[in-house]
Specification:
elongated, mainly alpha
């Protein structure tokens, strides 16, 4: 959100900026053992988490490079460097320095998360510990009371909590940008996504219990004779389910129930399923306006989902790379992992 506020001050295209922010966030999300979707995709598929992450490098790294190139080309046409815009950024930086005591110790909660990821500590414990650590640091270094911290955790932060906010010399535009940047967060801000998630669970349960989904996709599953068709069908079904249910995590378990026999018959390792589900569901979830991720991103960044969707270059490139590796599986093992043991003579038969 901070980068979007800076882009607004510099008159940079907000959809492009939002696309870049989301692309970077998803790249980190796919390679993080603390990511909820990365954990749930591996869990649903029955794959080991770190094996799943390593397998996603095949699609994530090239997609990230393509996204960087795309944003570099898009940035060549943006005339943003002038003295007025740079002065605006300097004014915002000066205002933030006046409102808060910014020092290197504030990065410690983030370092705790990185250390937890490297050490493979329990995800929930790391996230809770980093949150309380951040609150403790805020209480020590920033001019806020414990009541302010509790209210910020529940209702979100508000600049009214800053006692000297009105004393800091800011023009109307800077005040507006600072409010947009800071006034957010809190548990109540997640009420709408939680309600949508509950509705999605009820809809998914109806599909599962009624057996309607299995009837609809039953004939498709019977026609999956090759590795390529299996991987492509898994991605397509994941996208369809996330569009219907509005939640990627729910689609993971439904896809697992549908395609598990296909993967076992073709001796495909389950890291292929987790990557296919991530490519078809997680990476596209934020591009649908009615999904939890789509609503959250649009509300947080202040950019409509359909406006930033064409600029989420990492997500789109990652999907293309996943399709590429699915097709490549007809001729090569590169990027596609099989269960062990499997003989060289079996691979052509499995590919069809």
């Amino acid at each position: 959100m901070a980068l979007v506020a800076v882009a607004a001050a510099m008159n940079v295209s907000l959809p492009i900026t939002a696309g870049a922010v989301i692309s970077g966030a998803y790249f980190g999300d796919k390679l993080s053992p603390l990511s909820d979707t990365t954990n749930m995709a591996a869990l649903a598929a029955g794959a080991e988490l770190y094996q799943s992450i390593r397998n996603m490098l095949y699609t994530s790294v090239p997609a990230f490079l393509f996204a960087c190139l795309g944003f570099y080309i898009a940035g060549l046409d943006l005339n943003v460097v002038n003295s007025i815009q740079l002065d605006t950024i300097q004014v915002m930086k000066k205002a933030l320095n006046s409102l808060f005591w910014l020092n290197p110790l504030l990065i410690l909660p983030t370092l705790l998360v990185f250390i937890g990821a490297i050490k493979k500590w329990d995800t929930i414990i790391v996230l809770i510990a980093s949150s309380f650590f951040a609150l403790a640091i805020c209480a020590i270094f920033q001019p806020f009371t414990m009541m302010d911290l509790v209210q910020a955790s529940i209702n979100g932060f508000n600049t009214n909590m800053i006692s000297n906010f009105s004393d800091v010399a800011m023009n109307e535009s800077t005040t507006k940008n600072i409010n947009i940047l800071l006034n957010r967060g809190g548990m109540y801000s997640m009420v709408s996504p939680i309600v949508v998630m509950l509705c999605a669970f009820m809809f998914a349960s109806a599909l599962d219990v009624s057996g309607g989904l299995n009837v609809l996709l039953g004939r498709l599953v019977q026609k999956l004779k090759t590795v390529t068709s299996t991987l492509l069908a898994t991605m397509f079904t994941s996208s369809l389910l996330v569009a219907c249910t509005g939640n990627a995590v729910i689609s993971f378990f439904l896809v697992k129930n549908i395609y598990d026999p296909c993967f076992k018959n073709k001796k495909l390792h389950m890291v292929n399923m987790s990557r296919s589900m991530e490519s078809g569901a997680t990476l596209l979830e934020g591009l649908f306006p009615w999904t939890i991720s789509g609503m959250f991103m649009a509300k947080t960044l202040g950019v409509a989902t359909l406006d930033y969707a064409p600029w989420v270059l990492f997500n789109l490139s990652c999907l293309v790379m996943a399709v590429f590796f699915a097709i490549l599986a007809r001729w090569s093992n590169f990027g596609t992992r099989y269960e062990e043991p499997i003989s060289a003579e079996q691979v052509p038969v499995l590919r069809g």
